[in-house]
Design goal:
Distance between the termini: 41 Å
Strand content: 5-15%
CATH architecture of the largest domain: Up-down Bundle
Largest sheet: 7 strands, mixed
Number of domains: 2
Shape: globular
Helix content: 40-55%
Oligomer: single chain
Strand order of the largest sheet: 1-2-9-6-5-3-4
């Protein structure tokens, strides 16, 4: 795996609440030292099988040298509750004091869920904090949010717990250059969706909206480049800048109907969260046109469009169409039927989505399951 230094990619350290953010090429090699600064001496690695067996896993284990106490390499999408339980038990037996989620949202979410479970099992004496090393752009590494799935009931539950927000989010673009283009694209759209929901969230202040717009512009610019040229290290660096701020937007502003629907679909069908984002986002945005005029005016400019002279309705439609073109250009699925979701299931999906806190928090009130069904039918 190459080690690249570039003056255009400086090492950045910043603190956001409880999370230390470190960004830069090669920073993974300082992992053991940074963990020591945070008081951790017994790290336990949580990842998936492909990363564990490849050069990324090898480099992270080398960076941890003799301090690593174990590795769990069986994380799965949407975090089955059983995997979190397995990590909690194994890490507890090995007396781990930090769980390191390495990869995408699934291993990072598994580490979060396991840390929460360890505290439930053993209280303060069994407490681990979480460190996140992303290789995709999902944003989980800077949020206090995680989800687990009851695989028997096919239901995903989303929890917001400040105690499991990662203490360290370490972004090394050298670890992302082998991330497949389709995964780059889908998780990048997930990051963009964080920005969109942040722009019209009821809980976002001007600072959060400014960050959402800045991150959204970066993702619109650099995501297509990263998909086209996966080994472009400066592009990976800039995309991490955008996805990191998009994750902070999610942490501060929360989620709406878009993410609520995606969570229901993911729990039911085990479909990739990023792909669901790509399918649902334009239709959820269209539902929110009546309340999103100022947000879409800013988004229009980010897309390079001229919003002047357009009313809110025409402007909203213009922005939604631009979002569709952006996603289509990334060669991602466009329809729920393309990923095997039956049309006959849409009414029950809509009913289940009404139970979602994110759906209930949407800035345009969701009056009934019919509102959700309209989005699902348009996406099918």
């Amino acid at each position: 795996m190459p080690k690249v230094s570039d003056t255009a990619m400086p090492v950045v350290r910043r603190q956001d609440g409880e999370t230390l953010i470190v960004l830069g090429p090669g920073v993974v090699d300082d992992l053991a030292r940074i963990l020591g600064e945070l008081g951790a001496t017994r790290p336990y690695l949580v990842t998936g099988p492909s990363i564990a067996a490849g050069p990324v896993g090898e480099r992270v284990r080398a960076a941890l040298r003799n301090v690593i106490v174990g590795t769990y390499a069986r994380s799965h999408p949407h975090v089955p509750a059983q995997t979190a339980e397995e990590v909690a038990i194994e890490a507890g037996l090995r007396k781990a004091d930090v769980l390191i989620g390495l990869g995408g949202g699934s291993p990072i979410g598994t580490a979060k869920a396991a840390a929460a479970r360890m505290q439930e099992i053993g209280g303060a004496e069994n407490r681990c904090f979480v460190v996140a090393i992303p290789t995709t752009y999902a944003g989980s590494e800077v949020t206090p949010v995680y989800g687990t799935t009851d695989t028997e009931r096919r239901r995903k539950s989303v929890v917001r717990n400040p105690a499991i927000r990662p203490r360290l989010a370490l972004y090394d673009p050298e670890l992302a250059i082998d991330t497949p283009s389709d995964l780059t694209a889908s998780t990048g759209v997930n990051a963009f969706a964080h920005c969109v929901e942040g722009l019209y969230s009821k809980d976002a202040d001007d600072g959060v909206r400014s960050m959402a717009l800045r991150a959204g512009r970066r993702i619109l610019e650099d995501l297509p480049r990263a998909v086209e040229d996966p080994r472009n290290l400066p592009c990976r660096y800039r995309l991490f800048e955008g996805s990191m701020e998009a994750g902070l937007v999610l942490a501060k502003a929360g989620m709406g109907i878009h993410h609520g629907i995606c969570h229901v679909l993911g729990g039911r069908y085990n479909a990739p969260h990023g792909v669901l984002n790509a399918i649902i986002l334009p239709h959820a945005m269209r539902f929110n046109i009546p309340i999103a005029g100022p947000a879409y005016r800013e988004l229009a400019r980010a897309f390079g469009l001229t919003p002047e002279g357009l009313g809110d309705s025409d402007l909203g439609e213009t922005v939604c169409r631009a979002t569709v073109r952006f996603i289509k250009g990334l060669d991602l699925p466009q329809r729920l039927r393309d990923i095997g979701i039956p049309k006959a299931d849409l009414p029950s999906i809509a009913e289940e989505a009404l139970e979602s806190k994110s759906v209930r928090a949407n800035p345009r009130p969701v009056a009934s399951a019919r509102d959700v069904l309209g989005i699902l039918e348009a996406a099918w």
